[in-house]
Each structure stands twice: as structure tokens, then as C-alpha cells.
Design goal:
Elements: H1 2-11, H2 15-47, E1 52-54, E2 56-58, E3 60-61, E4 72-82, E5 85-88, E6 94-99, E7 106-107, E8 112-116, H3 119-161, H4 167-206, E9 209-211, E10 216-221, E11 228-229, E12 239-240, E13 244-247, E14 252-259, E15 271-276, E16 284-296, E17 301-308, E18 320-326, E19 340-343, E20 348-350, E21 353-360, E22 363-375, E23 378-383, E24 390-392, E25 405-407
Parallel strand pairs: 1-25, 11-12
Antiparallel strand pairs: 2-24, 3-19, 4-14, 4-18, 5-13, 6-8, 6-11, 7-10, 8-9, 10-13, 14-17, 15-16, 15-18, 16-17, 19-23, 20-21, 21-22, 22-23
Helix pairs in contact: 3-4
């Protein structure tokens, strides 16, 4: 009996120990999660950037040959437009039988660019010529009749003076002569009418030819052979009002809308510099042609015409362009190091002044500067900086005065 009791005691399980182990497991998991979160938060805190990351540039002395001007007084946006542009059409309504243009083709003045169906016009010319010949023959017959009646009239006049014939016979001869002379005048007028009719018919025949009004480049081909064209109105879904558009590329200029608040900075003849949006690194010399003497009430702007100093095939109509209006030229730098050059991207310009951010001890200072001329990707600074100053060259839109920054590795 004692042996059985001993065996049963050996098979008994100590449950309190298992319960203690089971209750301790969640505590260990919770501690591990807390430790992992602490490590992650610490790593993120150390990795988080302290301030805006920027690139820096150094203000350097400008070359000795650089002048202090002319400085920019105003920037504005506009578009390239053609002062001489025409949508060419025929003077009459007709069907196109020949179209001799393509987009991009250059044409010369009076060059035939299209031909309309001229069947009816040619028939009218033939008819008018026949009528003229008939009128000319009638005039010839009237001239012969007048020449025959003149001697008879002159003889009867002499005989009447000598009392050889009666007054009645003389009156009959005079009536015949007057009728012949009148017939000749009528025939002459008839020939003039026939000439005018022939001229109109030939003009109508010439109007079937569409010619280039001036030298230029075809930018739009608006019709095809077989289509109807009409100078008056479309007249239907398949009737064109023109055959194409020609642009005189030598007449290209810029139209700029300048805010009326700054129009006092612009004047006729003023020098300017233009940059096409398509070629931002290409500066084109230009000058102000005229200020249109009226304002746009809706936009509060005044239109200004700006002409290019020289033509270039890269300049195309309707291109976007940025125009910088320049002030009067200043004298060259007298003292070496009077002007500095910095990257143009590091300057927020507004006419002849601008703003830069000077980097010092992990923060930036907003500073106003006076600007000179633009040298490609560099900007001349006349005052407000010292040689060797470190300025922010990127991220300017995120900077404010006193903002903390981090300099990106070069």
C-alpha cells in the first residue's frame, strides 16, 4: 500500500510553477515591445533633419570689365506675335483645283499659292472678247459712213451758198451727215463698254488665282483641293473662308501686359532683354517700340510692344517670353571688388533690387541687395553683400529670416 502511494506522488504535477511561468510570459513580451519602440524613437530623433537642407554659394568679386548697369527695373511676361500676318483667301467663291502650299513653306510676294476652278471665268473672257470685236467692227462701219457723208455735206453747203440747190436739199444732206457722226460716237462708246466688259472678265479670271500678299512662311494650311472657298462667309459645313495663313517672320515682336502700377518704369525706346521660355539661357537684346495708350480695366494692365534687335529662326509666333526692362547704363566699376557675382538662382529679384539669405551659424539672415546686370547664370550684386559671404543657393521658397538650415554635402 505504501508503494502505491509513493508511485502516485511521483506522478503528481506541480501546477503553481506552470501558472507562474505562464503569467510571466506576457510581461516579457510587453517589455520587449517597449524597448523596441524606445530604440526606434531615439533613432528617428537623431535622423530627423534639424532645419531646411540647402546648398550654399559664395559671393565673389565681379570681373573688372563688368559694368554696374544697366540694371533691371521691371520683369514681365508676354508672347511673341506677328505684326504682319494674313489669312489668305480668294476674292471670289469657287472650288479649289490646285493648292501649292504646305506648312513651313516660304513664299514670295505675288507667288501663286492656290487656283480655283476657272471654267466659267474663261468662258466669260471669250464672250467679252467677241463682244469687243463686234463693237470694234461697228465703230469701223460708223467711221466709214461718216467719211462718206462728209464730202456730200461739204459739197451741198457750197452749192447752197451759190444758190445752186434748195435749202431743203441742203437740210437733207446735213441730216445724213449728223446721223453718221452720231452713229460713230455711239459706236465709239459701245467699244469702250466692250473694253470695260472684257477687263472685268479678265479680272474675274485673274481672281481665280490666289497669290501671296507678302513674303513670309505658311503657318496654317486651311483648305484642300476640291473644297469650296468663299471670302464672304463659310456658307456651309464644307466651305472654307481661306486657303492658308502666312506670317511675315521679319515682323515678329513681343506683346507684354505690364501692371499699371509699374508702367511708369517703362518708356518708348527703352532697352530690354528677352528670354524665350523654350530657350531660358538665351538672352535676346530688345527695345520698347511703343506703349499702347489704353489700359485693360479687367486686368489692370497696359500693353507694351517690344521689338527684337535681330531676327532669329528660333523665334516663333505665340512663344512665351520673359522680358526684363533695363534702366539707364551706369559707369563701369571704379574700384576693384565694388561689385560681386552670385548665382542668379540664389537671388529673389524684383527689378533693380533683390533678396538673398546669408548663411551663418546654422541659420539664415534675410538681406536686401541692389542688383546690377545679369551675366548668364550669374547675377551682379552692387551692394548689400561682402566678398566671401555664404548665401543660400537652393530652397529659397522655404526660407524665412532666422530659419534653421543644414548645408547639404557638396
Amino acid at each position: 500500500m505504501n508503494d502505491k502511494t509513493a508511485l502516485l506522488e511521483q506522478l503528481r504535477i506541480e501546477r503553481p510553477a506552470q501558472e507562474a511561468a505562464r503569467s510571466a510570459a506576457p510581461t516579457r513580451w510587453l517589455a520587449g515591445i517597449v524597448a523596441a519602440l524606445a530604440v526606434s524613437i531615439a533613432g528617428a530623433w537623431y535622423a530627423w533633419p534639424r532645419g531646411v537642407t540647402i546648398a550654399v554659394a559664395t559671393a565673389e568679386p565681379a570681373p573688372a570689365q563688368v559694368s554696374a548697369g544697366p540694371a533691371a527695373v521691371l520683369d514681365a511676361s508676354g508672347y511673341v506675335v506677328a505684326r504682319r500676318q494674313a489669312t489668305v483667301s480668294a476674292k471670289i467663291t469657287g472650288k479649289v483645283v490646285l493648292l501649292a502650299i504646305e506648312e513651313g513653306q516660304r513664299v514670295e510676294p505675288d507667288q501663286i499659292i492656290a487656283r480655283l476652278d476657272d471654267t466659267n471665268a474663261r468662258a466669260a473672257v471669250v464672250q467679252a472678247r467677241a463682244q469687243r470685236e463686234h463693237a470694234a467692227a461697228g465703230l469701223m462701219a460708223a467711221q466709214v459712213a461718216l467719211e462718206n457723208a462728209a464730202p456730200t455735206f461739204e459739197r451741198n453747203r457750197l452749192q447752197l451758198a451759190r444758190a445752186v440747190i434748195s435749202a431743203q436739199s441742203f437740210d437733207n444732206a446735213k441730216a445724213s451727215y449728223d446721223a453718221a457722226r452720231t452713229s460713230r460716237e455711239v459706236a465709239a462708246r459701245g467699244l469702250a463698254v466692250a473694253d470695260a466688259t472684257l477687263a472685268v472678265a479678265e479680272r474675274n479670271l485673274e481672281d481665280t488665282l490666289v497669290r501671296a500678299p507678302f513674303a513670309g512662311v505658311v503657318t496654317v494650311k486651311a483648305a484642300q483641293e476640291g473644297e469650296m472657298v468663299s471670302p464672304i462667309s463659310a456658307g456651309g459645313g464644307y466651305t472654307r473662308t481661306g486657303v492658308g495663313t502666312i506670317v511675315d517672320m521679319s515682323s515678329l515682336e513681343i506683346e507684354v501686359d505690364v501692371s499699371e502700377n509699374f508702367i511708369n518704369r517703362v518708356k518708348a525706346g527703352q532697352r530690354a532683354a528677352a528670354k524665350l521660355n523654350a530657350y531660358p539661357d538665351w538672352e535676346i537684346p530688345a527695345h520698347v517700340v511703343a506703349i499702347i495708350p489704353t489700359a485693360d480695366r479687367a486686368k489692370a494692365t497696359v500693353k507694351v510692344r517690344v521689338a527684337f534687335e535681330a531676327n532669329d529662326p528660333r523665334i516663333l509666333p505665340q512663344m512665351g517670353v520673359r522680358v526684363t526692362f533695363l534702366g539707364d547704363a551706369a559707369a563701369p566699376n571704379a574700384a576693384a571688388g565694388a561689385a560681386l557675382v552670385v548665382p542668379a538662382a540664389a537671388v529673389q529679384s524684383a527689378g533693380d533690387t533683390g533678396v538673398v539669405y546669408v548663411v551663418s551659424a546654422g541659420s539664415v539672415e534675410r538681406r536686401s541687395v541692389r542688383l546690377g546686370q545679369r551675366l548668364g547664370a550669374e547675377q551682379v550684386v552692387l551692394s548689400g553683400l561682402t566678398s566671401g559671404s555664404r548665401i543660400a543657393a537652393s530652397g529659397l521658397d522655404r526660407l524665412t529670416d532666422g530659419a534653421k538650415v543644414r548645408v547639404a554635402p557638396q
